[in-house]
UniProtKB/TrEMBL annotation:
<feature type="domain" description="Aldehyde dehydrogenase">
    <location>
        <begin position="20"/>
        <end position="477"/>
    </location>
</feature>
<dbReference type="InterPro" id="IPR029510">
    <property type="entry name" value="Ald_DH_CS_GLU"/>
</dbReference>
<dbReference type="InterPro" id="IPR016163">
    <property type="entry name" value="Ald_DH_C"/>
</dbReference>
<dbReference type="InterPro" id="IPR015590">
    <property type="entry name" value="Aldehyde_DH_dom"/>
</dbReference>
<comment type="similarity">
    <text>Belongs to the aldehyde dehydrogenase family.</text>
</comment>
<feature type="active site">
    <location>
        <position position="253"/>
    </location>
</feature>
<dbReference type="Pfam" id="PF00171">
    <property type="entry name" value="Aldedh"/>
</dbReference>
<protein>
    <submittedName>
        <fullName>Aldehyde dehydrogenase family protein</fullName>
    </submittedName>
</protein>
<dbReference type="InterPro" id="IPR016162">
    <property type="entry name" value="Ald_DH_N"/>
</dbReference>
<keyword id="KW-0560">Oxidoreductase</keyword>
<dbReference type="InterPro" id="IPR016161">
    <property type="entry name" value="Ald_DH/histidinol_DH"/>
</dbReference>
Amino acid sequence: MLDRIKPMENLNKFYIDGAWITPQSRQMFAVLNPTTEQQLGEIVLGNSDDVDFAVAAANRAFETYSRTSKEHRLELLENLLEVTEKHLEELAQAMTLEMGAPITMSREAQADAAVGHLVAYIEAFKAQHQRNVLANADTLLYEPIGVCGLITPWNWPINQIALKVIPALATGCTCILKPSEHTPISATVYAQIIHEAGYPAGVFNLVQGDGPSVGSALSCHPDVQMMSFTGSTRAGKAITRDAADTVKRVTLELGGKSPNLVFADCDLEARVTASVLECFYNTGQSCDAPTRMLVERSCYDQTLEIAWRVAMDQAVGDPCQEGDHIGPLFDQIQFDRVQALIKVGIDEGARVLCGGAGKPEGLETGWFVRPTIFVDVTDTMRVTREEIFGPVLVIMPFDDEAEAIKLANDTSYGLAAYLQTGDADRAERVAAQLKAGAVHINGGEFNYGSPFGGYRQSGNGREGGIQGLEDYQEIKTLHFG
Ligand SMILES: NC(=O)c1ccc[n+]([C@@H]2O[C@H](COP(=O)([O-])OP(=O)(O)OC[C@H]3O[C@@H](n4cnc5c(N)ncnc54)[C@H](O)[C@@H]3O)[C@@H](O)[C@H]2O)c1
């Protein structure tokens, strides 16, 4: 009989130096269920004393853990894989409760990421040479950078935790994780998984808290060598400023407003259907969602018909029920933000094809929103330029390939781009000109093990693959006499 993890028992504690401890701070924060709006529990928002305590533990552990062999760390990662697989259901249930991911997608995508990224990172770590001899006979050593501060958001909680914690542990770094204060339950489950996998005390530490307290204390800390952050561009800039005085490495995965170029020569019915569903997936709370659809004018009207049908069929409902419906937004803050931007779109003169402000009928409790499509938008409207982070799609026409590329790149972001065309030469030609860290062609999906990250204000650094490991490493050059 499997021992289930009971995260609520440790929700108001921090995992530091291998044990669940009572925090120094006494500031409490209510964790809410976005479906019922009821309180699930409380966490303590840590303070700088809690951060100092965790950093000291990570610093002590680094002395020995950083010198362990690659084989030893691979063995620990294999243990982690075995334990993670045992506890996937607890991870999935935690995310359904705390951020409203429908249970089917919570199992198949949100929790699955803990295993998918781990398997891919084990392969990347096996393939990486920690010692390389150059043609000039100098030797490069890849060494762990040190104590890492890891700050994650609420929208793909375990995906982001796995993308940061696993490369830190693989490369011999020690770390302090500060998950989003809105999704502390899945992070507590994950900490218990790491404990069960047998990691030495102090290698992984969990401090709950908000950005201005724990997040900033980590970013400023002189004994933290690197910050890895996923979240808004606003917070990414704040972390970069906080980290400047200690000149630590900062890697950022930020927001996006990803364009989706639809050419008339694609399989229009299939590609538009999939594109609309992808925009609404996770209730639109994905940084790389295809939120800006640019459509060749000759197939614009037909595209709107297909998009309308798909959006009208998009079910919204209780995330505890199995199925492919979408759930609520994660919090009242996000609900208010999405409602405000829908109103902005209407005021700016964008035409509402379907959806609009307010809640879907019958879902008055919970932060549910109506899947919404704005059409005939212009490039200067706020709904076209700003990340809405809800199930809101904007659609605009273009006349030729050059205009499509110009519109696609007319954004401060550059995380992902999407391309629908039946012409393979065009796909290569256009993809080469898009300023984005990933281009998805005709439904090509992200695969675990590939690097993920953005151009421009969508961030720097790459998570996943050997590139993801290198972010946590220093390169030392040996010059032999
Ligand atoms: N590029 C990616 O891989 C990726 C993935 C997921 C989410 N995101 C982005 O994240 C955003 C949504 O997440 P959010 O609303 O939680 O964003 P957020 O930036 O407010 O919060 C993210 C994390 O940063 C912390 N934080 C906030 N202010 C901070 C500060 N000043 N110093 C240190 N830490 C701070 C929060 O406590 C939380 O843990 C969206 O913009 C989305 O596009 C990007």
